[in-house]
């Protein structure tokens, strides 16, 4: 009798496991064809010489030649440095502003719903549209940016912001922060709302001031959420393409690594070298994701 | 008295910071809207003339007459809607299995799906291009919907898995005691329960697909097949600095999104936050 019961349980587990794989099968097949295969193919391309305009070459195997080329290519190195600078600057500002905005919205006040809606709008519009909007704002003659700064006597003559390297960099960072700090604020706000009010009340009674309350109550509880938001943003900033492509086209030292890879692939039709750059982006993103997975570890176990 | 003054002061400061924040968020939109209704000479006025002396709606006609903007909108709508429906159809059953069924290799599957959702677009671009070219799918809707599934499906699975696992445990047992088959449980009990969440997930997938740029730029080279984000960005190359047209076009794109956000605010936030945190 006991044996039968055990056997029944085993076959039930088997049936459940089989059902699970059947239910996942369509997704697995689709993802293998359109995501896993292309990634493997990009690896393959990156170790071959494949310039589409030169089919006579026969696309020979070249080993790590394309990868070595990255480190000898001044333009590639400049784009890596730009991308790292951009990532660090935008993520730092987004964290700071996002946290501030989340702390504000965590208070009950009139018009909170409206603020929340206002915050979602920059996030919801296409990046290319926001890039165009800001490009016009920075326009050297008709732009709002010059006009406001001039009226406030911060500058004494109109500047061509997008024609210098420093100006372009600042313009890109501001636009990215404007578009994505709200997203950061929303995620952090969701984390803040998990902090029970009683904790603050009892800390207040114990005489903790606002900073002590922030560092000993708020921060430890929202740390997880903040890290997740931070890593999401880091990945996005590192892959930046649309913004740079539309706003500066990569001029004045603002070519991101994704844009340079794209130019190699679709403009110079150098699929080998372009793929090597793409693989490099993939590897960096993978490393950042692994850190992310590390923090997600407990959550995956829960499921 | 002093205490009270301090409180009032803090309240004023609070509202000041909040209002300044909202103004900075909205100023670019306001500027863009004003530009779209200014007469040409006022767009080019130095110093800038903020409030137009008369309303000029010519640019809104230009957007649809000089550019195939109506077609761009239609293309974006078809591609984003198909992507959303397909990824939720394929994703829901996988998400259910991941959230509610016991099987070996679950953690690996979850990790794999999360990793795929983080693939940089650029890393799959060239093989997909070669593949679509071979299949004669460049400049077709299918040729954009298929690549979009690469980011939409993992996203849908991930978010739906979170929503499924929030449902109370024991539903399935109760249903199977009542004689419901496994398929019956999924279609007749779990799917209806998850319907509101599906809507949240759908909105997020739709917005992401609507806004996508690299694939659309690469796979839709025919002007008539372009989507909105790429179509707008390529305005300047065809005509000399059509700032008015571009402003009008961005207003046309932004207004529906603002309405969408105002109406579905709560749903969007629910979808966004479930991916990042749980309980």
Chain-wise SSE layout:
The complex is a heterodimer of chains A (303) and B (279).
Chain A: H1 2-46, H2 65-72, H3 74-105, H4 112-124, H5 127-137, H6 144-151, H7 165-192, H8 197-205, H9 210-238, H10 242-247, H11 257-267, H12 271-302
Chain B: H1 2-36, H2 40-43, H3 58-65, H4 69-100, H5 106-117, H6 121-134, H7 142-166, H8 171-177, H9 182-211, H10 214-219, H11 228-233, H12 235-238, H13 243-276
Helix pairs in contact in B: 1-13, 3-13, 4-7, 4-9, 5-7, 7-9, 9-13
Please write the CATH class name of chain A. Answer: Mainly Alpha
The N- to C-terminal Cα distance of chain A equals 33 Å
Task: Work out the largest interface and the residue count of each chain.
Answer: A-B, 99 and 99 residues
For the biggest sheet of chain A, the summary is: none
Which shape of chain A, going by the Cα principal axes?
A: flat
Oligomerization = heterodimer
Give me the CATH fold name of chain A. Answer: MetI-like fold
Distance between the termini of chain B: 43 Å
Taking all Cα atoms into account, the compactness measure Rg of chain B is 24 Å
- What CATH architecture label of the largest domain in chain B applies? Orthogonal Bundle
| CATH H-level homologous superfamily name of chain A | MetI-like
N-to-C order of helices and strands of chain A: HHHHHHHHHHHH
Mean pLDDT of chain B: 87
What composes the largest sheet of chain B?
none
| Overall number of strands of chain A | 0
Count of alpha/pi helices of chain A: 12
């Amino acid at each position: 009798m006991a044996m039968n019961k055990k056997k029944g349980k085993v076959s039930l587990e088997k049936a459940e496991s089989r059902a699970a794989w059947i239910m996942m099968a369509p997704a697995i097949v689709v993802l293998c064809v359109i995501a896993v295969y292309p990634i493997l193919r990009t690896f393959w391309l990156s170790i071959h010489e494949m310039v589409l305009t030169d089919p006579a070459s026969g696309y020979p195997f070249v080993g790590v030649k394309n990868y070595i080329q990255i480190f000898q290519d001044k333009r590639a190195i400049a784009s890596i440095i730009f991308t790292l600078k951009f990532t660090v600057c935008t993520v730092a500002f987004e964290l700071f502003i996002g946290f501030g905005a989340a702390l504000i919205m965590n208070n009950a006040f009139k018009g909170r719903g409206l603020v929340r809606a206002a915050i979602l709008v920059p996030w919801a519009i296409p990046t290319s549209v926001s890039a165009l909007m800001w490009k016009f704002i920075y326009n050297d003659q008709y732009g709002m940016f010059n006009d406001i700064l001039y009226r406030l006597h911060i500058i004494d003559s109109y500047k061509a912001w997008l024609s210098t390297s420093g100006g372009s960099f600042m313009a890109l960072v501001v636009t990215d922060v404007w578009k994505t700090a709200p997203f950061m604020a929303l995620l952090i706000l969701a984390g803040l709302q998990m902090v029970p009010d009683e904790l603050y009340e009892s800390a207040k009674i114990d005489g903790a001031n606002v900073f002590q309350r922030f560092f000993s109550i708020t921060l430890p509880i929202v740390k997880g959420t903040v890290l997740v938001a931070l890593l999401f943003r880091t990945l996005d900033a590192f892959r930046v393409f649309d913004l740079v492509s539309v706003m500066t086209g990569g001029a004045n030292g603002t070519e991101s690594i994704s844009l340079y890879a794209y130019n190699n692939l679709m403009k110079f039709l150098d699929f080998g070298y372009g793929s090597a750059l793409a693989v490099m982006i993939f590897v960096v993103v993978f490393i950042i994701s692994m850190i992310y997975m590390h923090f997600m570890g407990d959550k995956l176990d829960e499921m | 008295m002093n205490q009270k003054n301090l409180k009032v002061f803090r309240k004023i400061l609070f509202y000041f910071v909040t209002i300044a924040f909202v103004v900075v968020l909205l100023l670019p939109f306001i500027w863009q809207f004003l530009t779209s209704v200014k007469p040409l000479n006022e767009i080019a006025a130095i110093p800038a003339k903020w409030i137009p002396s008369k309303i000029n709606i010519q640019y809104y006609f230009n957007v649809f007459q000089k550019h195939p903007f109506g077609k761009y909108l239609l293309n974006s709508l078809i591609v984003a809607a198909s992507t959303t429906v397909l990824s939720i159809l394929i994703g829901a059953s996988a998400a259910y299995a991941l959230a509610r069924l016991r099987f070996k290799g679950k953690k690996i599957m979850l990790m794999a799906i999360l990793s795929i959702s983080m693939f940089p677009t650029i890393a799959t671009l060239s093989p997909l291009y070669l593949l679509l070219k071979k299949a004669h799918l460049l400049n077709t809707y299918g040729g954009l919907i298929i690549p979009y599934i690469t980011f939409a499906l993992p996203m849908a699975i991930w978010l739906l898995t979170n929503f499924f696992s929030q449902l109370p445990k024991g539903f399935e047992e109760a249903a199977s005691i009542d004689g419901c088959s496994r398929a019956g449980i999924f279609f007749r009990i779990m799917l209806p329960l998850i319907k509101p969440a599906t809507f949240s997930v759908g909105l997020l997938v739709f917005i992401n697909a609507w806004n996508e740029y690299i694939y659309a730029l690469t796979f839709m080279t025919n002007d008539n097949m372009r989507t909105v984000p790429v179509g707008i960005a390529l305005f300047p190359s065809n005509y000399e600095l059509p700032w008015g047209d571009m402003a009008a076009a961005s207003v046309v794109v932004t207004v529906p999104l603002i309405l969408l956000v105002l109406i579905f605010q709560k749903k969007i936030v629910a979808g966004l936050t479930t991916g990042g945190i749980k309980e």
